[in-house]
Amino acid sequence: MTDLMLALYQFTLARRMGSLAEDPEYEDFVRCADLQEQHLRARLDNAGTQALDNLPDELNLQQARNRKSCSVPPSPFPGS
Question: What pTM, to 2 d.p., does this model score?
Answer without folding.
Answer: 0.56
